[in-house]
Design a protein that fits this description.
Number of helices: 11
CATH superfamily of the largest domain: P-loop containing nucleotide triphosphate hydrolases
Largest sheet: 6 strands, mixed
Shape: elongated
CATH class of the largest domain: Alpha Beta
Strand order of the largest sheet: 6-7-8-3-9-10
Radius of gyration: 24 Å
Number of domains: 2
CATH topology of the largest domain: Rossmann fold
């Protein structure tokens, strides 16, 4: 690929020229992005993704899928092994300083000084970005209002609940008004009420114009927060689109059958030739059947199991969920997976 460049453009600006194949409003773009750790462990295996300006983009996957490693590369905390990535128009490897000026980051680990107040922490964070004096006080006040912590502003952070600490962490990532905000599993470990509050804050931040890149292992979070999402498993993207597009692509009802005994193979054979059956996914003690008419198929499914003396503990039918999308793409469910933690360098 070549460009016709005016002579006055410095040679060190070449890496910043836009790719004509890339949407001009793309705030994040990766091509074949890869990260391999010592011992040949591939944490991220050549992912391609594009995030548009103003989106809440979700990165959905279980622990160990490569979510955090990807975020660390996009935030310039970890260099890619191969491939490329650009954030806010700047290459993460060659223009790391420019990338950092334009992003806010809230990682899983919340680092708050327990003997600082919320207000003091935000004013200190402002100082790190050159915002001082009355401007720092005004910005801190604005952020406290944004994340609903104005009443707790002068309390020590050690008295904050987990949800309050997470919201203060979000505020500290926003002091310099970043173009892109990275949130790495922002609600992990929070109770349901705190999780809903953080969701509201993320929506409010996005409404102000900030592009949000959010990693999560919670299906409901991805479904309710994200405009688009990519499902990652084993370091590879296995599906992407809007939540509704991904569920619609299934095009079938999902009948889940659980068994008292381990008669999975016999049950699968018993269902051979079932009308409207598109595919069967085998789980540990169950079968997931993708059929045209779930409710209409149950009677025939039960009849066949009775004929073949296969004992069933439960049977249910539902429209596809993101968990069913993940199951169809990977052969296992995301919920309840207890994979090893992300690979650490």
């Amino acid at each position: 690929m070549s460009y016709s460049l005016p002579s006055e453009i410095p040679i060190d600006e070449l890496d910043r020229m836009p790719d004509p194949d890339e949407p001009q409003d793309a705030m994040i773009a990766t091509r074949a992005l890869t990260r391999t750790f010592k011992g040949g462990i591939e944490a991220v295996r050549g992912i391609d993704l594009t995030v548009a300006r103003g989106e809440v983009f979700g990165f959905l996957g279980p622990n160990g899928a490569g979510k955090t490693t990807t975020v660390r590369m996009l935030c310039t905390l970890l260099p890619p092994t191969n491939g490329s990535a650009a954030v806010a128009g700047y290459d993460v490897a060659h223009d790391a300083k420019e990338v950092r000026r334009r992003i806010g980051v809230a990682l899983q680990e919340i680092g708050l000084d327990p003997v600082q107040t919320g207000r003091e922490l935000l004013e200190l964070q402002c100082g790190l970005y050159g915002i001082t004096g009355k401007h720092a006080k005004a910005r801190a006040e604005e952020l406290l209002e944004l994340v609903g912590l104005k009443d707790a502003a002068d309390r020590f952070t050690k008295t904050y609940s987990g949800g309050m600490k997470r919201r203060l962490d979000l505020a500290s990532a926003l002091v310099h008004q970043p173009e892109v905000l990275f949130l790495d599993e922002p609600t992990t470990g929070l109770d349901p009420a705190s999780r809903l509050t953080v969701w509201d804050e993320v929506r409010r931040i996005n409404d102000s114009g900030t592009t949000v890149f959010l990693t999560t292992q919670y299906l409901e979070e991805a479904d309710r927060l994200c405009h688009r999402l990519a499902i990652i498993d084993g370091g590879r993207i296995v599906a992407d689109g809007t939540p509704e597009q991904l569920k619609a692509l299934m095009g079938r009802d999902v009948v889940t059958v659980s068994f008292e005994n381990g008669d999975i193979a016999e049950a699968e054979e018993s269902l051979s030739g079932l009308p409207g059956l598109e595919r069967i996914v085998i789980e540990q003690h169950a079968l997931a059947l993708y059929v045209e008419d779930g409710a209409g198929s149950i009677a025939e499914i039960v009849r066949r199991f009775e004929r073949d003396q296969i004992r069933v503990s439960s049977i249910s039918v539902a429209r596809p969920t993101l968990d069913d999308v993940f199951l169809s793409a990977t052969g296992r469910r995301i919920e309840g997976i207890d994979d090893s933690e992300e690979v650490a360098e």
